[in-house]
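Lines hold sequence, tokenised fold; shown next:
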Amino acid sequence: MESVRSSTATANDIRKILDEIRFGSFALIENYSTVGSDLTLYALLNYTYERSLPVIVEDIFDAFAGYVRHFEAMGLAPPMDHVGVLKVGGIDDIGHVVYKLQFEADPTLYLQKKEKAIAEAMGDDRYAYIVTGFERLFGFQRDVKEVYVIVNHLRKNLGNERRLTISITEGNVIEGFPTNPLPLIEDVATSVIELHDHEDLVRLDLKKSVFNILGGTKKLFVRPADVVGWW
């Protein structure tokens, strides 16, 4: 473990990674860690605030609300003044809710309504678009055709220069669906990170594209306490 601990990520390493998630791209965060999703969202909220970048969070069935409750339990208070919340289903209104959207099982109808709501909320601003509970969206799809509708929508939005897209998904959950959509989503994503527990650290597996910027590094190790201390 000594070599691992000596190679733990710095705040500068994490900021370099986030700096390389460009507008018009799609970054997929696959969490297999106990606290990976919480740390990711905490870092993103702080990073976007530092850069005065507005955020729209898609809160699918109270996933974002759950993260905020975790923050409160851990004594963390990430900045939220720059964050608008698009509620998709669910009952727990957390943060500045800008739009409530009833979930539609038909993905085409759902995606149309969602894009209209985002356009109304964000106008002509450039913004970060963070999807929480991404796996929950796929849990309602009945066959592979409906999965392809969502994946094609993701592909269509590549190149949207006003939007920086990051989706956080629970890997163990989404892989358990009858039609596992992860290979299709990873194919569309411009960047992919997996988060895994490694004793008392979180291991970041940098799987795709821009995350090779750190001298060809494929893995980074993060101390959860360090992430909290960076902001």
Notes: The chain has one domain: 2-229. Residues 107-122 form the longest helix (16 residues). The two ends are 26 Å apart (CA to CA). Residues 2-229 form a domain with the Rossmann fold fold (CATH 3.40.50.11570).
